[in-house]
């Protein structure tokens, strides 16, 4: 999934190259050619959960590429798990005392049916400067780009001090079982670069880089079920207690409730930096005011009225599904609703459910956590100076001196499993795209190929700075 949402705020930015022209990123002809070719081969493999899942074949494709470019067979492992698989490939560093740098992505994709698309989703097509196909933006292309950058660096004779590990999961879009397994195996890592999706935004007007964002935190995805039960009876003899009425009153209270507004280092930096690019003066002012004081009611009123902003102010919970009754002429014996929450880092599922129970103020409404094991609470990663400096250098080398904005995602990605184990993980892919080209999980998914050359420059710079020192 694309964990950095460039629609976090609505930018009419045309400032993309306001800092002046930059030197073009270095060309890597062979690597550039291979990025496109291998991306097409990966997209052609239908790595979708269920019968016929070809995620293992994607892993084998990547293994073959690594073996052909300097990796030893003993340093590449493909582990089957249920109907999928995960890949761990190691480039040993020269200093065994240093913890490894992990490059994380996923090889599986969301289901796509050919009948719904303009093109077959698993037949990659290059057209008008775009690569089309399921996984083009989420996230086979980026997985290949990160891997080919490492291959290019190895060809140049680079000797990493810190071990580099490619860790690609096989079910990020569904159960995340392999994501958890990988994180547990690599819990001794120094830092994780999660390259899932696209981090940069291109101007809709000029097509040039507008800004770039890295993610250092994400909210916890949780689903709660509310259930109200009654004895029921004939509809001609209404009773004081009616499960549907009781549940509707609970939902109204929850729908109007606001959780405590909050900040962490990541979101505070986001509000400050994003406000500098926001063309709406009222909204920009509210963003700055909130960063200075999250209890500012005037600022909160503005931000909570904006769908792209409200989720950044704290925990949010919203009713998403509703069911009740068993017959048109009977009093309902049962009514249920699903409440979907995105919990701000630092709060547990139990804590938020208890708060919702207080808001409901209805003993007959029974709450339960129905999320399952596909989500976990994770703290925000620190604003590490070495990471921030390496990112600034890499982005500038690839795209020029553009604005860089830290951000917090609404969840969920592979990063949360690492963070839950105390390993800093950052969403920091190389690619740029326009908001209007964002079709991850949707029809006619695509990614502009102009990302290949600067993407190689970006990753090579990051690997050198974070693994070479």
TrEMBL record:
One of its GO terms (biological process) is proteolysis. Keywords: Hydrolase, Metal-binding, Protease, Signal, Zinc. The keyword ATP-binding does not apply. GO terms for molecular function: metal ion binding; peptidase activity. It comes from the Bacteria. It holds the Pfam family Peptidase_M20. Residues 218-365 form the Peptidase M20 dimerisation domain. Residues 1-23 form the signal peptide. Belongs to the peptidase M20A family. This is Peptidase M20 dimerisation domain-containing protein.
């Amino acid at each position: 999934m694309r964990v950095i949402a460039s629609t976090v705020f609505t930018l009419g930015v045309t400032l993309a190259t306001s800092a002046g022209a930059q030197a073009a990123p270095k060309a890597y002809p062979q690597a550039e050619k291979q990025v496109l070719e291998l991306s097409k081969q990966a997209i052609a493999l239908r790595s979708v959960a269920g019968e016929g899942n070809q995620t293992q074949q994607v892993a084998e494709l990547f293994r073959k590429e690594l073996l052909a470019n300097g990796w030893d067979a003993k340093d590449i492992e493909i582990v089957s798990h249920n109907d999928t698989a995960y890949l761990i490939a190691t480039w040993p560093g020269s200093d065994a005392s240093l913890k490894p740098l992990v490059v994380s992505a996923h090889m599986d994709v969301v289901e796509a049916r050919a009948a719904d698309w303009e093109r077959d989703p698993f037949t990659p097509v290059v057209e008008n400067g775009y690569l089309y196909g399921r996984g083009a933006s989420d996230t086979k292309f980026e997985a290949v780009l990160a891997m080919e950058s490492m291959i290019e660096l190895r060809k140049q004779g680079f000797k990493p001090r810190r071990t580099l590990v490619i860790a690609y999961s096989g079910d990020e879009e569904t159960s995340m079982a392999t994501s958890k397994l990988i994180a547990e195996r690599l819990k001794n890592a120094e830092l994780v670069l999660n390259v899932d999706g696209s981090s940069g935004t291109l101007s809709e007007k000029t097509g040039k880089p507008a800004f770039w964002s890295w993610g250092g935190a994400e909210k916890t995805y949780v689903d709660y079920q509310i259930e109200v039960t009654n004895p029921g009876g004939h509809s001609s003899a209404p009773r004081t207690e009616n499960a549907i009425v009781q549940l509707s009153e609970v939902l109204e209270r929850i729908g109007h409730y606001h959780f405590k507004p909050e900040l962490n280092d990541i979101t505070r930096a986001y509000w400050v930096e994003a406000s500098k690019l926001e063309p709406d003066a009222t909204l920009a002012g509210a963003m700055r005011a909130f960063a200075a004081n999250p209890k500012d009611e005037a600022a909160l009123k503005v931000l909570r009225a904006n769908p792209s902003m409200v989720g950044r102010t704290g925990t949010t919970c919203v009713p998403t599904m509703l069911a009740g009754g068993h017959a048109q002429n009977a009093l309902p014996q049962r009514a249920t609703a699903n409440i979907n929450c995105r919990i701000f880092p630092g709060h547990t599922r139990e804590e938020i459910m208890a708060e919702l129970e207080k808001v409901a103020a209805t003993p007959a409404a029974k709450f339960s956590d129905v999320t399952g094991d596909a989500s976990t609470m994770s703290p925000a990663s620190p604003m590490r100076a070495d990471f921030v400096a390496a990112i600034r250098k890499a982005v500038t080398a690839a795209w020029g001196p553009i604005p860089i904005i830290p951000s917090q995602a609404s969840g969920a990605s592979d990063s949360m499993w690492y963070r839950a184990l105390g390993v800093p993980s950052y969403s920091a892919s190389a690619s740029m795209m326009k908001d209007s080209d964002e079709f991850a999980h949707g029809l006619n998914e695509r990614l502009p190929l102009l990302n290949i050359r600067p993407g190689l420059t970006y990753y090579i710079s990051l690997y050198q700075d974070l693994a070479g020192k």
